[in-house]
Amino acid sequence: MKRALLVVDYTYDFVAEDGALTCGQPGIELETYIVDLTKGFLNEGELVIMPVDLHEQNDPYHPETKLFPPHNLKGTSGRNPYGALHNLYEENKDRIIWMDKTRYSAFAGTDLELQLRARGITELHLVGVCTDICILHTSVDAYNRGFDLVIHEKGVASFDSAGHEWALRHFEKSLGAKVIH
To answer: Which one of 33, 46, 134, 168 is most buried, counting C-beta atoms within 10 A?
Structure first.
């Protein structure tokens, strides 16, 4: 079984205390786990993809404009990987696929599925934020496309603790994902 790691939206705007739409401390606490897991995948020669939210300032056609404050805006440092992950990405740009996404799911409007199928990937490991938004929607789409799912509990967080807990149960009970506790 070939596997890939998706590091979803682990950016400054979503994680830093002063980020535009931050998970705050729960997101910050993921840093070491995500960096170590990413290094492990890279050291094993396995695929690492970073699907990252991309927005335009005051986009009247994007549904999130009505729901959330501006975040992960094109051309801003808010889109940079958070903390030590930023340096790891910069050092491994040739081995990590950066993927702009404009919806919650990393599959919506991207070539993610093509990238995975071309490499024979059957198992997806997911980390990042937010557990109950982008991780959830990406997982549902992956499930519907027949991928096996592994969610790293120590690698996901949300600004909504109830949503986070609900999503962890949903991954396991409704999507058949393996949740690593």
So the answer is: 134
pLDDT of residue 110: 98
- Record the tokens describing residue 51, joined without a space: 């699907």
Share of the chain above pLDDT 70, in %: 100
Judge whether 64 and 130 are in contact, CB under 8 Å. Answer: no
How far is 177 from 137, CA to CA, in rounded Å? 13
Distance (Å, whole) CA 39 – CA 42: 5
Structure tokens at 177: 């994902």
Burial zone of 154 (CB within 10 Å; 0-12 exposed, 13-18 middle, 19+ buried) = middle
Spatial neighbors of 63 by CB under 8 A, at least 6 apart, are: none
Give the dihedral of Cα atoms 69, 112, 146, 156; nearest 10 deg.
Answer: -40
125 DSSP β-pair partners:
5, 150
Rg (C-alpha) for the chain, rounded Å, is: 15
* Cβ neighbour number for residue 156 with a 10 Å cutoff: 30
Size of the chain, expressed as the number of residues it contains: 181
The token pair that represents 156 in the structure block: 């996901």
